[in-house]
Write a structure and sequence with these properties.
The chain is an alpha/beta fold. It is 44% helix and 19% strand. It contains ten helices and seven strands. The chain has a seven-stranded mixed beta sheet, sandwiched between helices. Helix 5 links the parallel strand 2 and strand 3. Helix 3 packs parallel to helix 4 and helix 8 crosses helix 10. It is globular, with a radius of gyration of 16 Å. The termini are far apart. Bound molecules: ligand 766 and magnesium ion. The site of magnesium ion has 5 residues, from loops. The ligand O=C(NCCCCc1cc2cnccc2s1)c1cc(-c2ccc(F)cc2)cc(O)c1O binds next to strand 2 and helix 9.
């Protein structure tokens, strides 16, 4: 059967990247998406904002919802302190297989725990399966209609602490209106919008950073 876009992206990384060099993997993916095939990675513009928030938070516990090909996983993992691991959830097994290879090519496999499944099923298992008390940093980049139910799930499962930072991709395009309304109007969050563009395009998009106030 015909290859998938993530599989063609992996080939581009192996051809144009340098093994063990995360920056070269990031560049190879961005080049592929700009010159070969658009793909729904967070991209370089929003990726720089992601980098700055991760650096500012310097988290010890990290969760990413939506691995896709591992582009943002690599961006986050390369910035984590030694010994810190990030948990990333992916629903699609074919994409998860590609992501594992891209993360390994970057040399970051020891800093990443990739779990296949849906957020609704896996979030309630975080404490028992991974010994997590609370998350310092959460990157939301999965089904856009799951952002709101999943933030409520985080609250219900006691996975947030005073100061936990949630960063959400695509709050404009494709859009997450109910999530935005919730975090911007809830007294339990302090929210800030970072304007940018949909990855590799001129279409308006942005990231919403929300700090849990306890
Ligand atoms: O759908 C998007 N990302 C989610 C893929 C969901 C798969 C998963 C569900 C799930 C559930 N539980 C755990 C893990 C996971 S992973 C997405 C789409 C666009 C886009 C596409 C077309 C377009 F014209 C304009 C924008 C841009 C983006 O940046 C995106 O992130
Ligand atoms: Mg996205």
């Amino acid at each position: 059967t015909r290859s998938t876009r993530p599989q063609r992206m992996l080939k581009a990384v192996q051809k144009n990247g340098t093994k063990g060099n995360p920056e070269s993997v990031i560049s190879a993916i961005d080049y592929f998406c700009k010159h070969s095939e658009w793909a729904m990675n967070v991209g370089d513009e929003k990726g720089s904002i992601l980098d700055s928030v991760v650096t500012e938070v310097n988290p010890s516990t990290v969760l990413e919802l939506g691995t896709y090909c591992g582009y943002s996983t690599v961006r986050i993992a390369r910035l984590l302190s030694p010994g810190t691991k990030l948990i990333t959830l992916e629903f699609n097994p074919v994409n998860a297989a590609v992501a594992r290879q891209i993360i390994a090519y970057a040399g970051l496999q020891d800093k990443v725990i990739l779990v296949e499944g849906s957020s609704g099923d896996l979030i309630p298992q975080m404490k028992e399966r991974f010994g997590i008390m609370t998350f310092d940093f959460i990157f939301l980049d999965h089904w856009k209609d799951r952002y709101l139910p999943d933030i409520k799930l985080f609250e219900e499962c006691g996975l947030l602490r005073k100061g936990s930072v949630l960063l959400a991709d695509n709050v404009i395009c494709p859009g997450t209106p109910e999530y935005l309304e919730y975090v911007r109007n809830s007294p339990r969050y302090e929210s800030k919008y970072y304007p940018a563009h949909l990855e590799y395009t001129k279409v308006e998009d942005g990231l919403e950073k929300s700090v849990f106030l306890g």
